[in-house]
Amino acid sequence: MTVKDTDMPRQASQLPSSLLVLRNILTFLMRSPTSAFGLIVLGLLIVIAAFAPLIATHDPYAQDLANTLKAPGNGHYFGTDELGRDIFSRLVWGSRISLTIIFLVSIVVGPIGMIVGTTAGYMGGRLDTIMMRITDIFLSFPSLILSLAFVAALGPSLNNAIIAIALTAWPPIARLARAEAMTFRKADYIAAARLQGASDMRIIFKSIMPMCLPSVLIRLTLNMATVILTAAGLGFLGLGAQPPMPEWGAMIATGRRYMIDSWWLVTFPGLAILTVSLAFNLLGDGLRDALDPKQMNRR
Amino acid sequence: MTSNVEIRNLSISFGEGPAAVKVLPGVNFSVEAGECFGLVGESGSGKSTVLRCISMLTDFWQGQISIGGRNVRDIPRLERCRLLQMVFQDPYGSLHPRQSVRTTLSEPLKIHGLDDHEGRMRRVIRDVGLTADFIDRFPHQMSGGQRQRIAIARALILEPSLLLLDEPTSALDVSVQAEILNLLVRLREERGLTYLMVTHDLAVVDHMCDRFAVMLRGEVTEVLPRAAIQGNHATHPYARELIGASLEYEGAL
After folding, report:
1. Which of A45, A187, A295, B65 is the most exposed place for a label (fewest CB within 10 A)?
2. Which residues in chain A are closer than 8 Å to B99, comparing Cβ atoms?
């Protein structure tokens, strides 16, 4: 058959289309300096977290009481803290904690927000009203205060901080997904899917969600900056990661007492938080341009 | 399979209470199996609403619609999908922008648990006049006419006997319109389909339909055979006016 012959090479080149899209998005992001900065910082953060044992010069928990509050230098790039621990090594190991928080919060918040939002938006009616009122209740609290309440109830620890942040971070995503879903539910291709016998769940998962995914992804990336800040805030208040852990917020909290004499205790963790949350914001902005449907059509 | 359509006292209103708008006050007509039946009328006369009621996309209507002697409401959903399908007006809005032709065509096969996906897809793609290498394209990689062919392929892949056509050519170029209409004519001959076609172009009716109904403000004013167009044999004043205007327009061209 001639048709078979002609379309075989085409299929081969089309197969890794998702990889191709990913490469296109990355090239697009690298083209603008701000989103390139975000991408590079994020890449660095992942590399640092992955190779923390190799990059860190000291054990992050090793105390050296003869060597406390030393200024940067002498083999300690960023100085030492009040117990003589190397701040650089603690920052390096702390990147693992930050990435864990971001990752866990995102994989909890993304799907929950997406499912609640798309279901409410597609189904409409009473279900929509109920789901959105619940979302409104969550939205009406400032997220840090609500996380504080959750952590106070569950007890202070890193895991509880992650749960608390996840519980407060999904409503904006649900809102967004609902708004998107409402614009698509009347589309002809949804009607066509219904005419083919697709169940509501199938339509939500296969037709609505792919359409909401780009904006949710952008929102999630922008959210990561807030997640880092909230985690640092909880750590600072003593409600997140507990003292020996090298969490950036907790490091600032303990360093606060020595801030006047030993500036390096708060400056470097503060800079780390600033850089990473800035990187996520810039990356989110870049993604907004990269995932714009009109841009997508050009690819 | 016979798929004659009987519509008795079909009425529907949107909204509730005193604000409710009665769109269809009571529509009656019937389409014989294997026939091509046209629905014409001005914008907002309820033509498309009738199609959406028959296909159960809108399900809060009153009255009775039966296909092949069975009440539409009594036909199970999946069986109904294999009995009737719809082709929409705008091929730019009726194909999912993020789904390739392969996904679009294989979804219904998966839902209905049919076998030989590849073979069925290739056959239906060839039936609508495209080559098999279109299977891996996305909607934005196709022209309007090609998209509409894919939309027709999607409607045909479940092998329905009744096709509801909601102005299938009005969003297309004139030259492409003719291609799609000829495709529809050919498919009907090959597969013995029943067409119920909404249009506001009497030339399309003249080209394709055996009979047609003229609708005005939700009511069927008159059901006419195709032959009534040429000499304007309509008796209802509105139908006469509509056909007269159309003949005049074509005469001017």
Report:
1. A295
2. 207, 210
CA distance A196 to B195: 18
pLDDT > 60? residue A3? no
> Are A70 and A79 in contact, with CB atoms under 8 Å apart?
yes
Contact assignment for A189 to B132 by CB distance below 8 Å: no
pLDDT band at residue B253 using 50, 70 and 90 as cut-offs = low
Residue B123, number of CB atoms within 10 A of its CB: 14
Q: Give me the residues paired with residue B41 across strands.
A: B215
Q: How many CB atoms lie within 10 A of CB A190?
A: 23
Residues of B within 8 A of A192 (CB-CB) are 86, 88, 94, 151, 154
Q: Which domains does chain A have, with CATH numbers?
A: 37-298 (1.10.3720.10)
What is the pLDDT of chain B when averaged over all its residues? 89
Instruction: Tell how many helices (H) and how many strands (E) occur in chain A.
Output: 14, 0
What domains does chain B contain, in order, with CATH numbers?
5-252 (3.40.50.300)
Per-residue 3-state assignment (H helix, E strand, C coil) for B51-87: HHHHCCCCCCCEEEEEECCEEHHHCCHHHHHHHEEEE
pLDDT tens digits for range A227-241 = 888 888 888 888 888
Between CA A200 and CA A205 the distance in angstroms is 9
The H or E element that residue B21 is part of is strand B21-31
B108 → closest Cβ in A10, A188, A196: A196
Q: How many residues does chain A have?
A: 299
Separation of alpha carbons B37 and B28, rounded Å: 13
